[in-house]
Amino acid sequence: MRKLLLIGYGNVGKTFRNFLHKWKEELDAEIVGVVTRRGLMMGDSPEFRKDADVSVTDAIDKVKPDVLIDMASANYKDGQPSLSAYFHAFEVGADVVTTNKAPLAIRYFEIMENAKKHGRKIGFQGTVMSGTPSINLYKVLPLAKVKKVRGILNGTTNFILTEMYEGRDFSEALSEAKRLGYAEEDPTVDLNGFDAGAKLTILANLMLNKKVKIGDFQIKGIEDLKLDDIEEAKRRGSKIKLIAYADEKEISVRPMEIEANDPLFSIDGVENSLEVTNEVQRVSIRGPGAGPETAAYAAISDLFIINGTK
């Protein structure tokens, strides 16, 4: 049975634990430790209790996991402590599964090269569209070169734009998003496009080999959009959406007016969508892009694949 060490134990971590117990036999894995800012808990418990006051890398040495599961909140300043934890896990022979976008948005290729150097695997489906298989979609589209990726990658902003299309102003739409749990109390990284930019960074590096990091390209959010802008587009039969786009020459996140015949026109509320166009075909997927259940399921699916059971 494979031993798992979790980083982070919020709603996603606890939901992951519930799924793991549900599918324990199929996954052949068990939690042997959880490490948070408060310290290390040895073993598996529904509620965190501190058994030792150690760093994340020390926790890896103490627990000796087969797989490190990172569900920590994103630190876009330097990706720590997760970034150091990945490198140390690879070095001591552990694989990594992560739902944390920040390390990959900052140092994607270093992480991939380090995993390869040590013969380890990293699963990161949960970093883009949570459990809707964006990253893992690419794994089943072999050989054909990807020409472009395009999508709606942030549920908070898409919900707000949908509400504005129905007549609410920005502040009312944001308040409703907070009330329903679709927006954080501080939604800055959603509203300014940074979250979508981090996801696009990962997709562009994976699918287009762009060699970019967050901050290397234009990111414009929705904070400056007025209800008049939305209504003018509506009168033209269009909608304004926050579009993430990358091809061989261009990469950006910005609000764009799209027409009714565009596949992204009907993506409303908190739903996300991604189009991947390769030299053979265009493939589109849509589904929830956030929430503890879908994020935890993304980590479960990666663990399933890494275990070689699929």
Automatic annotation (TrEMBL):
Question: Could you mention a single GO BP entry for this protein?
Answer: methionine biosynthetic process
**UniProt pathway:** Amino-acid biosynthesis; L-threonine biosynthesis; L-threonine from L-aspartate: step 3/5; Amino-acid biosynthesis; L-methionine biosynthesis via de novo pathway; L-homoserine from L-aspartate: step 3/3
Q: What class of enzyme is it?
A: oxidoreductase
Enumerate the residues binding L-homoserine: E184
Q: Which InterPro entries match?
A: Asp/hSer_DH_NAD-bd (IPR005106), HDH_cat (IPR001342), HDH_CS (IPR019811), HDH_short (IPR022697), NAD(P)-bd_dom_sf (IPR036291)
Q: Where is the Homoserine dehydrogenase catalytic domain?
A: 139-303
Binding of NADPH occurs at K101
Active site annotation, chain numbering: K199
Supply one GO molecular-function term.
NADP binding
- List residues binding NADP(+): G8, Y9, G10, N11, V12, G13
Keyword tags: Amino-acid biosynthesis, Methionine biosynthesis, NADP, Oxidoreductase, Threonine biosynthesis
Q: What is its EC number?
A: 1.1.1.3
Give the source's domain of life in one word.
Answer: Archaea
Record's family?
Answer: Belongs to the homoserine dehydrogenase family.
Protein name listed in UniProt: Homoserine dehydrogenase
Species of origin reads Sulfuracidifex tepidarius
